[in-house]
Specification:
7-stranded antiparallel sheet, 6-stranded antiparallel sheet, 2 helices, elongated, mainly beta
Length: 254
Amino acid sequence: MAYLQAYLNRQPAGEYQLQEGTTTIGRHQDNRILLDDRSVSGHHARIRFYRGVATIHDLESTNGTFVNGETTREATLQDGDFIIIGKFRLRFWMQSQDSLRGSTDEDDDTYILRLATPGLPPIVADQELSARIRQAKEQVALSSSHGGEGPAPSQYRMLLRIISGRNQGRHLDLLSPVNTLGEPGRQIVALIREKGQLFLQVLASELDPPLVNKKTIDDLGRHPLKHGDILEVAGVHMMVNIETSAGEGERHPL
């Protein structure tokens, strides 16, 4: 499976799955991907997707087509490439069938829950993010071996209540030592349970950085969270909820 995520003025502007064959991109209504802005030509570019290979072709557009900052007439796309068409920025993602093989403990470590997508569907992390996720899990495991919180703690219930976006009203239980969520091409963060506390760690931030209580988090360190904190990740607002196993009324005093 391959797809494009579109952004306009640093805000999400659509997501498009690429089918086998040719996908046209432009301002006119007959394009499969419609980018409605005067900076985009009527028929600006096309992508040919065949047997897992995607190639983009510029259709003699007025403002040109750019891949990773370089103007191009034709280019084979790689996972994670950025495409500029007029004022739109598009991120190309490739997810092979091999990456969707049966779930194992190691595979589960590399899934990301998509916050801004209805239903919070998981997506397989790319190689770089997978390495960061596994590193975070190794650090938690090392801490646990020295008397920290175990891999399946039951003393505290930690969850996020989603208060904006397409999943508003849902909650997300943070059951694993490392819980990864966000949106590829925008922001990916890890929520880390360690020694009875909850931490936020930024794994990737390609647009605006995430916020905690309206304060920017723009480094890769761990940031402690407490009950009632408001997070903004990939444009989605969430409230941290930390409860003791004794019941709803008791909170962990962080």
